[in-house]
Amino acid sequence: MSTLTSRFVAVDGSQIHIIESIPPIPRDLPLVVLVTGLGTVGAHWCAVQRLLPPQIHSFAYDRLGLGRSDRTTLPRPATVLAAELKATLIAASLTPPYLLVASSYAGVICREYLEKFDSDVAGLIYVDANQERSHVEREWPMDATFRMDTGGGLTSGPSGLSEDHGCSEVDWEAIKSAEAAVIAERDSLSHAGVQPRQGESASYVTSLAALGDHGQLDKQALGCRPLSIIVANLARDFERSYQSGKRAGLGTADDHEAVETFIKRLPGVELELAVEVLKLSTLHRLIVTSVSGHLVYLWEPELVVQEVLWCLGKCSRVEKSG
Q1: Which range marks the domain in which residue 104 is found?
Q2: Distance between CA atoms of 203 and 88, rounded to whole angstroms?
């Protein structure tokens, strides 16, 4: 079981909070860089970090504007977030190569990182992560799903995560504490008329389109570096949220029809999008899990660890053959 430490580093005058598991004896392995999705914080990776073998160095962080890092009014497109990740790693004196592990929207951030800093990247793990066509192909009826949302947050909502997560008690309490802090700050800012997640979410659609402009899939941007893709049961998350909202009497008949149609087609769409991302590398594998909802690192942290170990093993072979 790895021990986690946290510290702050200064990036362009702002403080960024990072969380590391540092091996007692340095090993010649890529640093495992764990990147969260929209509005989530580095503490969410704690179960994965603790389950990694102690000889593996891992890194998670709170992006500017989130968690314990400083607030920001800067634009938040994925290109900026990728550059900030690079600056954070430099400030923390953490040198490449890096195995990038991306959840949700971080798939876009990490692929922008690959575009800018290709030589840094030893491999990539997609943890139910977004690609450039996710928004277009999903046809997500956001307004309808939001009208049927009964709330509760990531760790206490209708997904069932609070009952069936795969985290230890210590890690689950840390995750709940981190989420409670995020919710408290969001509520405080909301009372002041501020949208705390507006920066990143406002750039979501344009960031996906910008990623597509690079043509990474067509040019096999990762080459022969390892790529692992985990596809989760995202439709189940939406189904449980929808049923919770329906029981509460939320939404119109049109909302119900739109969400039901979306949920039925979502599994096929998600698998198609994941298979398309395999084109990034000649060395890849695809894992489909029905156990996990979208936040795989909370439902099945051991599955993420499994894929980290697979990629690290392949990284060493790629380096030797190179």
Answers
A1: 4-139+167-233+283-321
A2: 21
